[in-house]
UniProtKB/TrEMBL annotation:
Keyword Transferase among UniProt keywords: yes
Protein name: Glutathione S-transferase
Amino-acid biosynthesis among keywords: no
Higher taxonomy: Eukaryota, Metazoa, Chordata, Craniata, Vertebrata
Domain GST N-terminal per the UniProt entry, residue ranges: 3-83
């Protein structure tokens, strides 16, 4: 029997958090080995574990997988969260890419300060409200289903919930103009495996604080 997936990353969200979400939603237990100092990262470099000298890295099914998109696609396919055919997979990919773009903006927010941070937050709010959330609101309205693709829980739904919660941390009440997304948030949050992941004490990571950001800068020479 294969062991649990092992996740190699810092003790924070970053690009690994979506992997944690997807594994948790699939009901898969996983282990984590945290990169807490530069030497931890250098050890992974030196032993050849990182294909492109980058993390996240996930040990799964005898592979040491890198590149977040590849890792997520593999997990989604393995645990039946990637649609029933190529067309559904294409829609899932499009929706996931959109939420990834939005989450990428949010991930960069703590690395800004002062006026630039305020401008970046305003841009996040504008893009979420006018570019991204209207797409998902319309999708739910047009097909009248509980889920984004194929009326079945998929990677697209899990990723969207993660993006919604991240955006709400930046701007509470941002879903006020999107009633179908509000209902969607409630539904997906109550999927048993996801509900468990959202409880205190899970492997979900908190928003990054100043101490975490300072350590990330030190580890990765940012």
């Amino acid at each position: 029997m294969a062991g649990k997936p092992k996740l190699h990353y810092t003790k924070g969200r970053g690009r690994m958090e979506s992997v944690r979400w997807l594994l948790a939603a699939a009901g898969v237990e996983f282990e984590e080995e945290f990169i807490e100092k530069k030497e931890d990262l250098e050890k992974l470099w030196s032993d050849g574990s990182l294909l492109f000298q980058q993390v996240p890295m996930v040990e799964i099914d005898g592979m040491k997988m890198v590149q977040a998109r590849a890792i997520l696609s593999y997990i989604a396919g393995k645990y039946n969260l990637y649609g029933k055919d190529l067309k559904e997979r294409a829609w899932i990919d499009m929706y996931v890419e959109g939420t990834t773009d939005l989450m990428g903006m949010i991930m960069h927010l703590p690395f800004h300060s002062g006026d630039t941070k305020e401008k970046h937050l305003a841009l996040i709010t504008e893009r979420a409200t006018n570019r991204y959330f209207p797409v998902y609101e319309k999708a739910l309205k047009d097909h009248g289903h509980d889920y984004l693709v194929g009326n079945k829980l998929s990677w697209a739904d899990i990723h969207l919930l993660e993006a919604i919660l991240m955006t709400e941390e930046c701007k509470p009440g941002i879903l006020s103009a999107f009633p179908l997304l509000q209902a969607f948030k409630g539904r997906i949050s109550n999927v048993p495996t996801i509900k468990k992941f959202l409880q205190p004490g899970s492997q979900r990571k908190p928003p990054p604080d100043d101490k975490y950001i300072a350590n990330v800068r030190k580890i990765f020479n940012i």
